[in-house]
Amino acid sequence: MEADLQSFVAFYLTGKKQPARLEDIGSLKLRPALFSGYRNLTHLRYDFPLVLIDEPVGDRFAEPLSGLVDTILGKVAQGADGDRIRKHVLRLEQEIRTLVASGAKGLFSGLWDKAAKVLVKQDKLITESLARARANLNVDGEVLDCSAELPTRLLGHAWGITQMRRAERFNEDINRLIVKLSDIIQADYINSDAGKSAQNLKHSFGAGALNSFDYDAMSSILKKVTARQTLPKKRRQRVLGLISTLQAQKFFPTTGKSGAGNTPYSFTFDTCSGALKAYRDRLPKAIELARAVAMAELEIKGEYSEARHEALFDSFGENGLDPEALALFPDYLVRLNATTLSGPEQSTLTEILSADLPFKILVQSDDILEKSLIENGHMAFTLRNKQLARMTMGLGVFVLQAPASNLIQMRQQVQQGLEYAGSAVFSIYSGDSPNTAGIPPYLVAAAARESRLFPAFTFDPSAGNNWAARFSIAENPQLENDWTLHDLVYQDEHCQTVREPVPYTLIDFVALDKRYGNHFAEVPKTAWSKDMTPVAEKIDKERRGQVESVPYLLMVDPASVLHRVLVDEKIVREARRCKTMWNSLQELGGIHNSHAENLVAREKSAWEESSRVIETASAAPTAAPTTTPAPAPAAVVAAPSEKEVEKSSDEAYIETPRCASCNECIQINDKMFVYDGNKQAFIADINAGTFAQLVEAAENCQVAIIHPGKPRNPNEPGLDDLIKRAEAFQ
Length: 730
Ligand code: SF4
Fold this sequence. Notes:
This protein is of the alpha/beta class. The chain is 44% helix and 12% strand. Strand 8, helix 15 (411-419) and strand 9 (424-429) form a beta-alpha-beta unit. The two termini are 59 Å apart. Mean pLDDT is 85; it is low at 622-646. Bound molecules: iron/sulfur cluster. The site of iron/sulfur cluster has 15 residues, from helix 23. Iron/sulfur cluster binds at residues 654, 659-665, 673, 681, 701-703, 705-706.
């Protein structure tokens, strides 16, 4: 037994297995025990596959297949046949789910018919049930499963609908302006000698009862009696110029009079650099069009004054377009994979976000368990996503982070991001990685959120002036907890059913990935002992001194037999880090906020003290009255005013009152960054580190409150790149 413990401890500390005692988990095909209920997803009714609705209402641009089937059932599964119809339609739903899981693609209606064909062969009554249900299928669209394809398709679909609605409004406006401007020209023509010619008058009245009318006589009378007020040449040219600009626009596909036949620009891109170049190339045309719209509005109201407006419109757009004018145009959609976000592409993204250009950027991650490039074996889980989220929030840009499994529940937030006036970033984890092959991407994506490694959140700068209004983590399960708890049901050695709540942690998630199999080791049942502790308990306690017990994770094999699997310390440390990050997000989201909790504790103790004093006073003999001074109000540490935190952008500083105590900066340099009495970081000694460390800390700070200022040492290597990176945090 002692020898077992020694080999277990050796594995825990070093990750090295003694082959005779510990087994590799890869060969056993183990999965975390909490996954045991999810072997075949096609038998479950859940949010996937989903249907991208062709003509949606509001933000319902996608619906779960099960939701659409429920709507149909609500209409047809009634009366005496209700149960039978329900059963048959649910069988059809399962058949569609199976078809899609095996790679079938197509419209909802097409897959319905395909699945029905399979089922009607099995049972005649099904034909009748499905025909009644089919008659109520009123929506259609492409059916998609949760896969690497999903984020691009879903966001592209939602973006397309937003732009189509914008195009409809735009076309309506442009057509109205063109018609009104044409009316000005037409009215001028009618008033001219040419307009009053006998031939034109005859043409205006057309053939009919007035065929014998003397148009020549009428023309000469009109020319004599009507004042000649034709348009001044300059105005006429201006109005014709406006019509031509409005008709020539290529920003939206056109209808009606607004220049049908122009090939419109494309607004979808695969790189930031391509999108930014297109934006810059088209900017002069966008300015010209925005100016034409503004001038046309004045012209048709008869309010255009050359003296007042000419100079103004000559300089229109010299400093680019303001958000109101930009809102006229389509947004640029850029769809990126996180692996391509480095070097120049990363700088271009920063440039786009810093300028808050109307770009909607999808950054898709298929792998969030990457190993760090810094050191062999070092882990950098979700590093790119964290950096992206910090940068975007620091720049005050809309950001939505979510696993693909959650996108359907976050439709409304996706829509808000797409309608946001400015840049919006959508950081989506697909769950589709070769390293978790064999497990449906939906499960992997959902597990990432469940394990707190990839929490869902939104940051919407337009929602208000404080974090409470702007930042939300409401789409995560069991918000108050460090880890999500799930019931694990199994049979013990006495064949008794046991149900116990088990936390789902980062370690369960990492155990799905075959690259990390060497951090786990299966323990034979004969060697199970009281020196083994459930891993979640170990995460909470940092090791101090000797190891007295080793952590284990419960896993199951394909026959659903439970196994205990040891976990090495590296992974346990990562789980601790993951928990700290989640705790910081909780604080930002208003849960377990340490400032609020400290304040409540101080107020509570002041209140208790004052009650105690009053009790003592009322118990004292009345013969000798004394005055009891009122207890001093609890000391409240006031947050520095905005003026106090406002510093010169040359000087490095931290917005200390907003520090979430996540430790990131302290880990980079604990001389330069130090906690104050409230455990909030400040720069204690600017000379204790490099500008590179300041920039790195700023990039790692979850709440983007470290401002690196300007470099103090002009000879520090790599300054050009560092200054560029620091710009996002000034
Ligand atoms: S200042 Fe430091 S400790 Fe505070 S939130 Fe930022 S990185 Fe974390």
